[in-house]
């Protein structure tokens, strides 16, 4: 089950993101605005605001192989960098990369009048979606759902980003995992 938090949405307590998740999102945003003074020899990817008129939706889907449980984190940002909505949830290991994409595509339908840029760090998902042949695996229906949702909207772009540029969604997914007592 996904929990959802949105400004002015009137969401009930059964679907609100845990208060700690919102704090983590604020911390991530603060860290973006105030980078550490210590320099690093390794170049790090950094989250970037979407262009004017876009809504960027970041996806996270980490999983724990030992337990077979995966988390889902989805965070939306507008061109000013504010996040009007986010959600988190859990899934099993097999769905940990595809399910966030499907949920992100459904989530993106909240902003039909702007360009939507969906970012995630799963190259495998991009590869699966670009295949022309039918996916006959047990995830085939989920792949088909994602392809159908992408085809329904002209103004949704899918983009792979480095893990470091997707930290807010990954943190939210870890909160979802932790809320199960698995963290």
TrEMBL record:
Residues 61-174 form the RNase H type-1 domain. GO terms for molecular function: nucleic acid binding; RNA-DNA hybrid ribonuclease activity. This is RNase H type-1 domain-containing protein. It comes from Prunus armeniaca.
């Amino acid at each position: 089950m996904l929990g959802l938090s949105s400004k002015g949405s009137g969401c009930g307590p059964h679907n609100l993101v845990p208060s700690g998740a919102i704090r983590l999102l604020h911390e991530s945003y603060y860290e973006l605005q105030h980078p550490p003074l210590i320099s690093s020899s390794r170049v790090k990817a950094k989250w970037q605001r979407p262009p004017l008129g876009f809504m960027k939706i970041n996806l996270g889907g980490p999983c724990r192989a030992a337990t077979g449980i995966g988390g889902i984190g989805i965070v939306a940002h507008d061109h000013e960098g504010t996040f009007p909505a986010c959600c988190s949830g859990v899934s099993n290991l097999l769905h940990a990369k595809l399910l966030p994409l499907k949920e992100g595509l459904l989530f993106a339908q909240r902003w039909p009048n702007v360009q939507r840029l969906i970012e995630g760090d799963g190259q495998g998902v991009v590869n699966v979606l670009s295949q022309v042949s039918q996916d006959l695996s047990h995830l085939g229906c989920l792949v088909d759902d994602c392809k159908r949702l992408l085809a329904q909207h002209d103004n949704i772009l899918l983009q792979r980003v480095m893990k470091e540029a997707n930290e807010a969604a990954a943190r939210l997914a870890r909160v979802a995992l932790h809320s199960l007592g698995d963290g």
